[in-house]
């Protein structure tokens, strides 16, 4: 594997990890472990924007079912 391929793999992994962290934060909030106000204001704004975008696409379930690897 060359440097370009490693960078592409890392970029793809970064995008996937964003989804993992987004889902983890959502789960922690849903279970009452944390509240959204525990997070910095800019993080709250970003999470709310993502939640609105997800809702516009049919919610979390539709996004999970759209994964290419079919884990969910």
Q: Summed up, what is this model?
A:
The chain is mostly helical and 72 residues long. It is 69% helix and 0% strand. The chain has one domain (3-65).
Structure description:
The chain has one domain. The protein is built from 3 helices and no strands. It has 72 residues and is mainly α. It comes from Buttiauxella ferragutiae ATCC 51602. This is Tryptophan synthase subunit beta.
> How is the biggest beta sheet arranged?
none
Radius of gyration: 15 Å
Backbone structural class: mainly alpha
Order of helices and strands: HHH
Strand content: under 5%
Stretches where pLDDT is under 50 for at least 5 consecutive residues are 63-72
Distance between the termini: 29 Å
- Number of DSSP helical runs: 3
Number of domains: 1
Looking at the structure, what is the overall shape?
Answer: elongated
Mean of residue pLDDT? 83
Helix content: 55-70%
β-strand number: 0
